[in-house]
Design a protein that fits this description.
single chain; 453 residues; FAD/NAD(P)-binding domain; five-stranded parallel beta sheet
Length: 453
């Protein structure tokens, strides 16, 4: 049995960063990854990076709306190829960064626990056992597939991962799910030239967001000719790409060429044999951890999407900080100390948010003042020819602190990080109102925006 100082199961953001750090400290580390196409984790290979590459290409393609579908399909195929080149390059760099460290071995194999600190690894050529006093599980998440007749083994059905490998642009794309992934893909494929329809089971569109924000997002998507149906029950998916659904008691048929299932992701724990390790899971199928990301079994941690909660590559990186603080003997950072995690949805008009919205502030009994401003007021929005959207913030009437902010505007994914920084620094809105910003930028809009407070 081979002995290591640490075993990391999964090549995700948190795990690979931890492996590099431990290897740099002289520790003998084994990184187990069953797929050669997943070096670097979900983000690089099947998530953020490939989708944002396509979002960028779609924005370019949208300038040629007058072209016929065949011309749009050619640009789409080129975008897919460009995406593949980018992913291949980043995947190779991620592999080399670890594999070139003499203290780190990357093993392509499936892993399962035999005992708390003993792992069996299986690949095409061997079966062996390895052990380590410290084991870190970073296996990410996988798309969920609802139990709807006709979805399984249907050549016209895709997940967000598999759709980005499709070379042919679907003329008619039906998206099952009205969450953030579904909206991002809807906007992207509509920009490429697909006719997009979103089918959502819930009656309320974007129930997590305030009504004014949800309404404006819906309005902007519908301006892209995206059809949105809420309160529907999907009963069957056809092998021809069609979907049968019920709404208000009436059965309807929707023709299509491809179906994207965007109903969320679940922790990837299949095959790990966690029971043998004494590692518990939650009712949602995530690995149960405490505020220090420790499982119930001493010496075993879990980080990233596999613990549930916010599934972002940057929170996986922050999980690394929690773990390394313990390994360095400090233990001065934990989940309880994490705050103000922003997120962005990369639609044609991107939406970004940090902190509480009105729904959440009211539920928590927090007093607030609302300020809003149309994005068109910002000169850079006009320069970019993207004047759509709005800016909204909740301000404490007592001390001027920012409770939360919602940005539905061009480049919101950059500006939101300024808001998070101010909130982390416990600064009030004057801090951002009175900053000197370069011109013309979207961030300088904060001068005018916070002058409304």
């Amino acid at each position: 049995m081979d002995q290591y100082d640490a075993i990391i199961i999964g090549f995700g953001k948190g795990g690979k960063t931890l492996a590099g750090k431990l290897g740099g400290m002289g520790k003998k580390v084994a990184v187990i990854e069953k797929s050669e196409k997943m070096y670097g984790g979900t983000c690089i290979n099947v998530g953020c990076i490939p989708s944002k590459s396509l979002v960028h290409s779609a924005a370019f393609s949208s300038a040629f709306e007058a072209d016929d579908f065949d011309a749009k399909a050619v640009r789409y195929a080129a975008a897919i190829e460009e995406k593949r080149k980018l992913v291949d390059m980043l995947r190779r760099k991620n592999y080399e960064k670890l594999a070139n460290n003499p203290n780190i071995i990357v093993i392509n194999a499936a892993a399962q626990f035999l005992e708390p600190h003993v792992v069996e690894i299986v690949n095409k050529t061997e079966i062996k056992t390895i052990s380590a006093p410290q084991i870190f599980i970073n296996t990410g998440s996988v798309p969920m597939m609802p139990e709807i007749e006709g979805l399984a083994d249907n050549p016209r059905v895709y997940t967000s991962e598999s759709l980005m490998e499709k070379d042919d642009l679907p003329k008619r794309l039906t998206i099952i799910g009205g969450g953030y992934i579904g909206l991002e893909f809807a906007s992207m494929y509509a920009s490429f030239g697909s006719i997009v329809t979103i089918l959502q089971d819930g009656e309320v569109f974007l129930p997590r967001e305030d009504q004014d924000i949800a309404d404006e997002i819906r309005n902007l998507l519908e301006k892209q000719q995206i059809s949105i149906y809420t309160g529907v029950k999907i009963t069957k998916a056809g092998s021809d790409g069609s979907v049968i659904y019920e709404k208000a008691g009436d059965e309807k048929a929707l023709a299509g060429d491809a179906i994207l299932v965007a109903t969320g992701r679940r922790p990837n724990i299949d095959g790990l044999n966690l029971d043998a390790a004494g590692v518990e899971t939650t009712v949602r199928g995530a690995i149960a951890v405490n505020e220090n990301l420790q499982t119930r079994q001493p010496g075993i941690w879990a980080l990233g999407d596999v613990i549930g909660g916010q599934q972002f590559t940057y929170t996986s990186l922050d999980d690394y900080r929690i773990v390394i603080s313990q390994l360095a003997g400090k233990a001065d950072y934990s989940l309880e100390k994490r705050k103000n995690v922003p997120y962005s949805v990369f639609m044609r008009t991107p939406f970004s948010r940090v902190g509480l919205n009105e729904k959440e502030a009211e539920k928590a009994g927090i007093a607030y003042k609302v300020i809003k401003m149309p994005a068109a007021v910002i000169p850079k929005a006009q320069v970019l020819r993207q004047p759509e959207g709005l800016l909204k913030a909740l301000i404490s009437p007592e001390n001027g602190k920012i409770i939360g902010m919602m940005l539905l505007c061009a480049e919101s994914y950059e500006v939101i990080n300024l808001i998070k920084l101010a909130m982390d620094l416990d600064a009030d809105f004057h801090f951002l109102r009175d900053q000197i910003y370069t011109h013309p930028t979207m961030s300088e809009g904060l001068n005018d925006f916070f002058s409304l407070a």
